[in-house]
């Protein structure tokens, strides 16, 4: 299956170009703070709220960069991808704005709210089983049939460069509104697109800021890869953090292995508790995936104590009829 | 029962003084927009997000103004009040910051999340039945026993002056970040504290801005009062918008009858639908009470079409275990 990694590592200039290219299509999302959560954790937390982003998640950054970077000729057959949800939404949104078709392969178990939103943006869905193997097989058929440009959800230099714009904004906003720099940034890790973009940007503009990844214990392939020194992939992990089930690939592994300081994991209950706490205290709707950073901060208080910590809240596309603390 | 209205009508200067007094104790909450909701309604909506306010609601403005305006002598017995929820929270928060006791009478049916939060801020709760009659009887006993200064949830010039600071900020933020003025402001109406503060401020700084009140059809005493030309009070209305069950009083009636342009009502289902839609699309947690403005805007599209409309999102203290679209 052809993708755009082929091992081109995006540069700092690629990220700057991406930001100029996507600015008309994204929000500069706010940075929120919570006195309650600061008191609870002993850290000073700055939440970069990509749940308020267009299409409801940071993924619109990378998707828009890929879509609007295509030549007219390359764009004529549209784009295609596979995604557990937010990348599908974001690519559909970006393709819709450019007026080109977007085909997406989604697991049949993806939240209904995400499927509805993809259709709302004009995306065409083909369903697969919720495993990496099934997803890749079904997708190969769709790609062959449509001839669309494959925008991988994370293993694509255009996508990584786009995701890197989030940390660029965060660091600018820290200086403008929050009195200076950060000691570390924590982001969830699934396939590693957001973390890789964070590494790309911070290793250039703020190399002293530590980059911490947060992962569900039940989908801890990045953690095990990090400890082993090579990629270990699970086929079908089960976690409430449905955006974080996919494995690292060559491009994201490059950034993770070179720039990430630490990976922490959290249990399902810790993730759900952190999610509910954020809704209660910060009054924001966010997905289980973006509660993983707060869960690991609460779990590892000594590590984060006294630090100024950026937290990437990656998305807010949750099924309001199936909230995890109301099941079972 | 003695309160502080005695018919002193707060002035514009009182509101300015209130803002200086309470600034250290409140957030300047953000103004959010939603392209989706603009397209849906045909209006341009600017949401003043008091769900992000300290103690989770705008009521902290009025409560802080009352608490921090007391002389040391007047403050020695603390403060007391009755409230269906957010005023109780806010007064407890403000009293806690000043280090004086706070006694609150709450209906036993108030959301558990609000009762817990009152206790978390150090407030002392006495429960009553969920009717105006019971609330006032129980409260008279508590006031006599404690000798605390009565801070009425809305029929108090200090409270109205405090709530007026919300529209002052909104109008400032419109000029700074959103390219100018508004045509109208819509706020929910229960006892009328927020609407009265809005009237106080806008009639001075922006007299051309129409002030619209939004009320649950099942607790439409303000609507009926407005049409009749005198206060009509219900004893125990039933609505999902639990912050809006209380009746107008002399001071708030003064502002409503002199400055409100229109009162619209919405059904329970319309309120719940608007609430869920806001959570889905804006990714913010807000109470049923603050969904009433959006519900009436969706219901009366012709009235709001093409207008620049400020919408006061009054609070976000909702019981996450009892969401209204998941009942029944």
Automatic annotation (TrEMBL), chains A, B:
SUPFAM superfamilies: Tryptophan synthase beta subunit-like PLP-dependent enzymes
GO MF terms held by the record: ATP binding; L-serine ammonia-lyase activity; magnesium ion binding; pyridoxal phosphate binding; serine racemase activity; threonine racemase activity
Xref: PANTHER family: SERINE / THREONINE RACEMASE FAMILY MEMBER, SERINE RACEMASE
Domain Tryptophan synthase beta chain-like PALP, chain residue ranges per copy: 22-315
Taxonomic placement: Bacteria, Pseudomonadati, Pseudomonadota, Alphaproteobacteria, Rhodobacterales
Keywords, in A-Z order: Lyase, Pyridoxal phosphate
InterPro entries (UniProt xref): BHydaspDhtse, TrpB-like_PALP, TrpB-like_PALP_sf
Organism field: Yoonia maricola
Cofactors that this protein relies on: pyridoxal 5'-phosphate
Protein name: Threonine dehydratase
GO biological process: D-serine biosynthetic process
Keyword Kinase: no
């Amino acid at each position: 299956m052809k993708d755009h990694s082929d091992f081109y590592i995006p540069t700092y200039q690629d990220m700057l170009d991406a930001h100029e290219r996507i600015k008309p299509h994204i929000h500069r999302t706010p940075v929120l703070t919570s006195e309650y959560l600061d008191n609870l954790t002993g850290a000073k937390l700055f939440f970069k709220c990509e749940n308020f982003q267009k299409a409801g998640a940071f993924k619109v950054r990378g998707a828009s960069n890929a879509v609007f970077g295509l030549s007219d000729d390359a764009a004529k057959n549209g784009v295609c991808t596979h995604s557990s949800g937010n990348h599908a939404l974001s690519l559909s949104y970006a393709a819709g704005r450019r007026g080109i078709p977007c085909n997406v392969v989604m697991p049949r178990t993806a939240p209904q709210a995400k499927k509805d939103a993809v259709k709302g943006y004009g995306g065409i869905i083909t369903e697969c089983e919720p495993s990496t193997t099934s997803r890749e097989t079904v997708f190969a058929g769709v790609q062959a049939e449509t001839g669309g440009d494959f925008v991988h959800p994370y293993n694509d230099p255009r996508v990584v460069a786009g995701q890197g714009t989030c940390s660029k904004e965060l660091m600018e906003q820290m200086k403008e509104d929050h009195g200076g720099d950060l000691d570390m940034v924590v982001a969830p890790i699934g396939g590693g697109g957001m973390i890789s973009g964070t590494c790309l940007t911070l290793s250039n503009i703020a190399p002293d800021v530590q980059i911490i990844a947060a992962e569900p214990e039940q989908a801890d392939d990045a953690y095990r890869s990090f400890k082993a020194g090579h990629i270990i992939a699970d086929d079908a992990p089960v976690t409430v953090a449905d955006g974080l089930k996919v494995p690292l690939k060559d491009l994201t592994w490059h950034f993770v292995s070179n720039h990430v300081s630490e990976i922490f994991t959290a249990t399902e209950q810790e993730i759900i508790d952190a999610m509910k706490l954020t809704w209660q205290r910060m009054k924001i709707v966010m997905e289980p995936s973006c509660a993983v950073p707060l869960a690991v901060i609460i779990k590892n208080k000594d590590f984060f104590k006294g630090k100024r910590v950026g937290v990437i809240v990656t998305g807010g596309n949750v099924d309001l009829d199936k909230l995890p603390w109301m099941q079972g």
